[in-house]
Amino acid sequence: MKIIKSLLLLSVFSFSSQASENVIRIPQAYLENLGVKLGKPEPVKQIPVLYAPAKVVIPPTQEFIVSASQAGLINKLNVAIGDKVKKGQVLAQLNSPELLSLQRLYLKADSELQLGLLSYQRDKKLLEEGVIADRRWQETRSQYNAFVSEANEHRQLLEIAGMSDSDIRHLTRTRKLTSQLNVYAPISGVVIDRMAVAGTRIDILAPLYRIANLDELWLEINIPQERIGNIKIGDQVLIESMAGMQALEQRKEQPLTSVKAEISLLGQSVNPENQTILARAIIKGEQTAVKAGQRINTQIIHTSDKAVFKIPNAAIAQNEGKAFIFIRNPQGFLVHSITVIGKQDDESIISDEFTGNEEIAVKGAVALKANWLGLGGNE
Questions:
Q1: Fold held by 50-60+215-303
Q2: Of 158-167, 275-284, 323-332, 344-353, minimum mean pLDDT range
Q3: Inter-CA distances, 308 with 195, 299, 334, Å
Q4: Was domain 99-167 assigned CATH 1.10.287?
Q5: CATH number of this structure's domain 62-96+179-213
Q6: What Rg, from alpha-carbon coordinates, does the chain have?
Q7: d(CA 88, CA 211)
Q8: Sequence ranges of the domains in the chain
Q9: What is the C-alpha to C-alpha distance for residues 358 and 334, in angstroms, rounded to an integer?
């Protein structure tokens, strides 16, 4: 009833709108009675482009599968899913008979190397004193180099088998064989998955743990192929977990953006199942709001070099597929055509040659539109 009264009141002062299609003349005294409220366009730099679903993933360079380097029996597993580990930490202990053979061959090669080193040093000194011929020196040096190569080969085999440098030094010093093999963490990170049980026998290269460094996470965003042209490298991505959004909706609150990311890659192929193109965004900075594997909603924001402005949706009037706003002037209001380039909640982003000082009708646009079109027309 209040809107009807306002429209009737406005029609009394609409005689001047017939003289010019783009001007509505209204005395200042009647603006409050019509429910018209004035405000100014707010200059902004960021343009909401679209909403799109995404998945949180771990970069491939930050994820490792820890495998058993030798076949054997699992004696002990030291960490569980969710535990934080440091690089070089012992994750598991295996009993591997094959390791004994590798250690024995290494110790034999090391002993031969020590004997070869003594011959090398002796013949080098004799050569300098002119006691032996150069040919004998060359033979001694060649044999010594062969011992060095063989010892290095067996040492590398122990490293491949999973022994650390400290383990090999201990073996070299004590000459004591052991079948116990420690499995070490290759990186500092978090245990994502455990794929073995203590007390079971496993084959060589059997997976034990999956460990990931979660300092950097990626977003894989599914962009509709017809909208990919609106997305650019460097665009900002605002993300919010589904659970958080649902909880806020239940409390009738607006969801708050808790994490920010940035577009780093736009895919070059279309998914035939859903006709979307993959976009990758890197989550910037330390955060705990999202987890690897989580499905979330995202909003992509484009930073504009041109002047754009934010206004309430209630300030916009639609007519014949075009958008208009009402700009206050001394006579009343100027009907001005605008281009809407983005929407976010109850606000719209428009592109126009504004100074930001213009006063526009942010409330009561329905009454102004009715007068502009003629009372009861095209409403």
A1: Elongation Factor Tu (Ef-tu); domain 3 (2.40.30)
A2: 344-353
A3: 54, 18, 20
A4: yes
A5: 2.40.50.100
A6: 37
A7: 13
A8: 2-45+305-373, 50-60+215-303, 62-96+179-213, 99-167
A9: 11
- Which pair of tokens denotes residue 345? 């909640």
Q: Is the pTM of this model over 0.70?
A: no
Q: Hey, how many other C-beta atoms are within 10 angstroms of the C-beta on 107? A: 17
- Of 320, 27, 70, whose CA–CA distance to 201 is shortest? 70
**How high is the pLDDT of residue 49?**
82
- If one counts every other C-beta atom within 10 angstroms of the C-beta of residue 120, the result is 19
Yes or no: is domain 2-45+305-373 CATH 2.40.420.20?
Answer: yes
Residue 49 tokens, joined = 């482009």
Whether residue 138 is predicted with pLDDT greater than 70 in this model: the reply is yes
Locate 176 and state its tokens. Answer: 């004591």
The Cα 151–Cα 172 span in angstroms is: 11
CB 11 within 8 A of CB 371: yes
Residues in the chain: 379
Q: How far apart are CA 26 and CA 86, in angstroms?
A: 73
Cβ-in-10-Å burial (0-12, 13-18, 19+) of 141 comes to middle
Name the packing angle between helices 2-12 and 365-373 (round to 10°). 50
CB-based contact 350:341 (threshold 8 Å): yes
Side-chain half-sphere exposure of 306, counting CA atoms within 13 A: 9
Structure tokens at 89: 């930490």
